[in-house]
Amino acid sequence: MSEPTTLAELLASLSEEERCILTMHYLRSMSAIEIAELLTVPVRAVDAVIAAGKAHLSGFIGF
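and the corresponding structure tokens:
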């Protein structure tokens, strides 16, 4: 599989959970605590997905 070349392809390459958490955090401005409560997962797990997602998307978004 080739490397994603668009943001849409990059997002599609993420797991459903990663896409969901990143969408809630960056597009809906939800905190990690809010996301964790909604998904009933530990806040540390949400923080880890956000950090990994930020690193994964950094080349496309310019974080």
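(Above: one complete record from the training split.) The mean pLDDT is 87.
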